[in-house]
Amino acid sequence: MSPVGKPDCMVIGAGPAGLGAALAAREAGLKDVMLIERDVELGGILPQCIHDGFGSIVFDEVLTGPQYAQRYIDQVQAADIDVKLNTMVLEMAPDRRITAVNSREGIIEFEPRSIVLAMGCRERTRHQIMLPGFRPAGIICAGAAQRDINIDGIMPGRRVVILGSGDIGLIMARRFTLEGAEVEGVYEIMKHPGGLSRNVVQCLHDYDIPLHLSHTVTFIHGRRRVEAVTVAQVGEDLKPIKETERLVPCDSLVLSVGLIPENELSLQAGVELDPVTAGPVVDESMHTSVDGIFACGNVVSVFDLVDWVTRTAEAAGRGAAEYVLGKKKIRAPIRVKPGRNVRFVVPQLVRNLGREIDLYFRVEHPERAVRARVLAGGEQVYSRKARMVRPPEMIHAQISAVNAAGKVKEIKLEVVSHEE
After folding, report:
1. Which residues of the chain have pLDDT under 70?
2. Cis omega (within 30 of 0) for bond into 347
3. DSSP secondary structure string, 238-263?
4. In terms of domains, do 99 and 161 share one?
């Protein structure tokens, strides 16, 4: 089958990352930009996120998910970007040949000059955390429950237990309560919550919903429908303590146990993945290890704020435009390495220290009275104090242009005490 299109840039996924990348590529000079989305509408996950908290960085105001999405949808439509909805990408080859399918055109092939991966992430399921018990109805992921209530108007349950304290789980604890359901509690296996502090306060504390840290579900009861779950405290080794088990009656178990970047297409194309983030290894322009393929947003790493997703998308769109227009200079990469109390850093590579570079990272464990610093070739190029750092809250560090071409072999990012 011969290709039906050879756009300058093809963006796969039309959530906040895809919308931002397509716009940035268009604004950077590419005339033929195509946006492919498998859903029936633009916006990705945002249309079902009817709570506020979006846009404080990008727009300097607080918006709901649909409001944030609509601002970019309006810009995409005004920019005359080619959009294909209800279109699923089936295959992506290392030479950037893409095979897709939809109900109107059947199977179609493209040979774009550049690609931006913006497929987002998916929820971790019950089987991926090996949760024992029966297999009744009433076990649902937090994002799926959010769609049921906010989009389809369906209540998944009336007496709810939430396992995991990720942001979607915390938000859904509040949402269930507002809809008249009883949330028995949120159970988190770690010693600290998995979501943002603001969500712990606004979604749990403000509604008197109990948060049980160092607890987990050890068994699911019920043959046809969830009838109860057994919960238990866990020790330092995160294993349940048998003597602390208790039975909690419920008709629904909502899982908020983590997100996984959606990288099946990336693997098909031979893109190198980071074992820690489970997303592509990228440089400061979000260029992956495969020539002409860029990645952004939650495909690269799961971000806590949509504003950071948009920032990486803009970098990817500009990077794709520079690549197509021949403005991107290929330099030897400088490795960005996590140091003390840093779990990972995105991007993992830097090719041009002569421009501003945005680094995004998470810490391994909570810590108070610290300073985040970036060392380029042993010289400190960034430093910022913080009263507290927590693993759920991504930290952003922007490095100014450094005139040290060829001298820096390594960039190191670390979190140290105020005194160091």
Report:
1. 1-4, 403-406, 419-420
2. yes
3. S-B-GGG-EEEE-SEEEE---EEE--
4. no
